[in-house]
Amino acid sequence: MIDASETERMVEALLFAAAEPLTLEDLAERLPEGADISSALKALGERYLGRGVILSQIGSGWRFNTAPDLAFLMTKEREEPRRLSRAAQETLAIIAYHQPVTRSEIDAIRGVQSGQGTLDALLQMELVRMRGRRRSPGRPVTWATTETFLAHYGLESLNDLPGAAEMKAAGLLSADMPANFVLAEVGADLQEDPLEADEEPQFHQDFLDENVQGGN
Question: What is the pLDDT of residues 18-41, one digit of tens each?
């Protein structure tokens, strides 16, 4: 078996150079067979504890992040993120807390009809994805968030979603949300990704394109 300290060095180098979080599978593809990746990640996490950068788990992947208390130092260096409209913020929050959810369900929760551009913008930013179709009349598309969403908001999993007040403070929700705007309770079922009993798997791209334009 490869030496533990050498495995730790190699994992450190890969994570340092990676632009996106790396999963255990990503690391295993690059490391020699028999490398104890889990132990290396644990050791790195302990070694970087309290340092300027820390090892963070984002969804199923791992990456180095600036320590939260030093984030203010990066303000000027960060690229200005694309701002979400109020409609997009509301839609994204509903998908995050109610997924899997259809467009008609999103509209019912928001109390207004969503424009086609709202979901298109969230798709282009890779914050949401099409999950599948409901086994109901019209076979409407169900929507869910992505790992890009988790990374964007610094969440390890959907169970780490904050409450409405915290979401507003983080900029995920507008401060002047409608009084009837409702978020579901976060449950352990949001951690998993298998299709629900009333869902069908994702479908071909021509159906995806048709659905986006058709507004399901």
Answer: 888 999 999 999 999 889 999 999
pLDDT at 204 over 80: no
Give the pLDDT score at 167. Answer: 62
- The hierarchical CATH code for the domain 86-214 is 1.10.10.10
- 3-class secondary structure, 85: coil
d(CA 192, CA 216): 24
Taking the alpha carbons of 43, 46, 47, 52 in that order, is the dihedral positive or negative?
A: positive
Domain boundaries, the chain: 4-74, 86-214
Cβ–Cβ < 8 Å for 196, 177: no
150 phi and psi angles, rounded to 5 deg? -60, -45
Q: Name the nearest CA neighbour of 185 among 96, 104, 103.
A: 96
Asked if 55 and 16 count as a contact pair (C-beta separation under 8 A), the reply is: no
Give the C-alpha separation, 89 to 122, whole Å: 9
How many beta carbons lie within 10 A of that of residue 213, not counting itself?
10
Return the CATH number of the domain spanning residue range 4-74: 1.10.10.10
pTM of the shown model:
0.54
